[in-house]
Design goal:
Elements lengths: L8 E5 L4 E2 H13 L3 E6 L4 E6 L3 E7 L2 E2 L10 E4 L4 H6 L3 H13 L3 E4 L3 H6 L7 E2 L6 H6 L3 E2 L4 E4 L2 E4 L5 H13 L6
Parallel strand pairs: 1-3, 1-7, 2-4, 3-6, 7-8, 8-12, 9-10
Antiparallel strand pairs: 4-5, 11-12
Helix pairs in contact: 1-6
Length: 185
Amino acid sequence: MAHELRGRTVAILAADGVERVELDLPRGALYGAGATVEVLSLHTGSLWAREWDKDPAGTITVDKQVGDASVSDYDALLLPGGTVNPDQLRTDPTAVEFVRAFVGTGKPVASICHGPWTLAEADVIRGRRLTSWQSIRTDLRNAGAEVVDEEVCIDGQLITSRSPFDLPAFCAAIVEQFAAVPATA
């Protein structure tokens, strides 16, 4: 089953301050399963990454500016965390609209740690069940979500996880969930 995502293209939407491990490990799992992966961001060039939000962790190359991306080109969406990353995304109307439109397609969306902040800003979690980093759970409840404390939570198209400690289970879940949806033609 090393190529269960062959023919699928996954967008990773991230901004400066992304938690490096929350982008790199899922991206590696997706590549390992045969997916094509593109990093979308608010600007071209590269993103500066962090480790535990405070320590510099190098840069990550941006493949495309989110404003130049089309939801129809992707089979799934990944929203990694880090505190600064989703805080920037949720204040950018283009990024928020991309997430809202993507959720509207019914295609799978995975998010970890602070990543669900962008889902809350896009107003797509009302009545949905999800998990996240503990400090944003009140924000998610206030946006209408049922928040649980689980390693991985799957509610229809949404796959969420709490923290970098949950990455092994999260990576396995996203590969399985993304593989369950037919590839975009």
